[in-house]
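Entry type: protein chain
Record version: 2
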Amino acid sequence: MSGKSYFHVPQPPGEFIDPKNINGYYNDLRKKAAWEGTSDEEGIPVNVLSNGDIVYFPITVAQMALGTYDLWLETKEHEYMSKFLKLGEWLKSNQDDTGGWVNPWNYTRPGTLSNYSAMAQGEGISVLLRAYPETGDASMKHAADKAFQFMMTPVENGGCTYYRNGDLYLEEYPENPRSTVLNGFIFALFGIYDYMLFTGKEDVQTIFHNCISTIEIGLEQYDTGYWTYYDLCGTIASPFYHSLHISLLDSLYVLTGSETFKSFSARWASYEKNLACKTRAIITKMSQKLKSPAQVTIKI
């Protein structure tokens, strides 16, 4: 609830964004480079669950990599590039035959239809497409191609995207009915944006713009009138995720120039500054947590 952990560090828009080129990441993940938990013998982070099990979590690896890459852009220190490439190599090597990365949803989100995630796919693509020019390793590019194709596979066919009446929903947790977690949708979309820049393909551009339209039309569904929802299941956002929603919309505004994102960002920022709104949101969040406590959570 406090939002004070490795997983909840502030994430304003990235400082090295270039809307026309793959450069710095779209949210500032540099604090994610300072991993506070356990690592394996290769220096890859592993996550400890509240039940004591230890798992690899591709999203943790990808966000650590993207934060490290921005630190390299900031400092040009070799150690950051070396660390980034090691994490990128892990993602390439641990992609399965479908093109997907397996996430621990069977522990933390048992209602999901699979252990895949559009958020993991998008962030993995963003890592691989930054590693490819640094290494010249064509397998990095091929892994990004596979990751994109799998992410865009319909949830009904084992993938991560729902297609509904021309709208596209990138699902952090493939569930039925769909939950469409807002931050997961946008992080996945950043991967599509990178893939669009990299390939220049018209069909990828169409997918990106369809996703943008879907988010623009759907933002009102995440607005409670005093705070934001985390997903479309009525889960109120924690203070961390509410702030993250604002940052993500700010980043989308930089990439698209859409006034819709600017307007909702300003509205949600006004909620954040209103003590009554924030207090109401925290009380509601506490009530939801008490009524439906998670059986297993990621500790670090």
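Comment: The first helix runs from residue 58 to 75.
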